[in-house]
Specification:
The structure is a single chain. By secondary structure, the chain is mostly helical. The chain has a domain of 88 residues. 68% of the residues lie in helices and 0% in strands. The chain has ten helices and no strands.
Length: 155
C-alpha cells in the first residue's frame, strides 16, 4: 500500500510540474538568450545553453523575479500595475508572471520598460493592420518572432 501511495504522489508531482511548465516556459515569459544576456551570472555559468537556462528559470529565476524576456519583466509589471502588487503581493513573482501570461497580455498591460504592446501597435501600423489594433497577443508574438530581431521599437 505504501508503494502505491508513493507512486501516486510521484505521478501527481510530475503532472503538476508539467502543467506549471506549460506557461512558465512559454517564449513570451522566458527567452533563454535574453535571460542569459540580462543575468550575467547565468551567462557566466551556462552560456547560452537553453536547457540549463530554462531549468534555472523554473527552479529559481521565476521565484527571484529575474528579467526573462524582451516583452516581460515581472518587477516592472508589478511596479506599473499597483492593483496587482496589492492583490498578489509585491514579491510574489510567480503569481504575477502567471497573471501576465493568463490575463495581462490580453489586456495590454504594461509589462517591460522597453516594450509596451499598445505603443508597439501604434508605432507599427503594418502589425496593427494585420492583426488588429487590440490583438495584443498576436502583437507580442510578432515582436518576439520578428520585431525584436529586426530592431523594431517596442516603446
Amino acid at each position: 500500500m505504501k508503494k502505491y501511495i508513493w507512486i501516486l504522489a510521484f505521478f501527481f508531482t510530475i503532472s503538476a510540474s508539467q502543467a506549471l511548465a506549460s506557461w512558465v516556459t512559454d517564449p513570451s515569459v522566458i527567452e533563454p538568450t535574453y535571460y542569459a544576456d540580462h543575468n550575467r551570472d547565468l551567462y557566466d555559468e551556462f552560456g547560452y545553453n537553453t536547457q540549463k537556462l530554462l531549468n534555472h528559470w523554473v527552479k529559481f529565476g521565476i521565484r527571484d523575479g529575474r528579467p526573462s524576456s524582451p516583452v516581460f519583466d515581472v518587477r516592472y509589471y508589478l511596479k506599473r500595475n499597483p492593483d496587482l502588487a496589492t492583490t498578489l503581493g509585491q514579491e510574489n513573482f510567480a503569481k504575477a508572471t502567471e497573471h501576465w501570461f493568463k490575463n495581462g497580455r490580453k489586456e495590454g498591460r504594461p509589462s517591460h520598460p522597453e516594450f509596451n504592446v499598445r505603443k508597439y501597435l501604434q508605432l507599427n501600423q503594418d502589425v496593427a493592420r494585420e492583426y488588429g489594433q487590440n490583438n495584443y497577443l498576436e502583437a507580442i508574438n510578432h515582436y518576439l518572432k520578428t520585431g525584436y530581431k529586426k530592431g523594431r521599437r517596442g516603446i
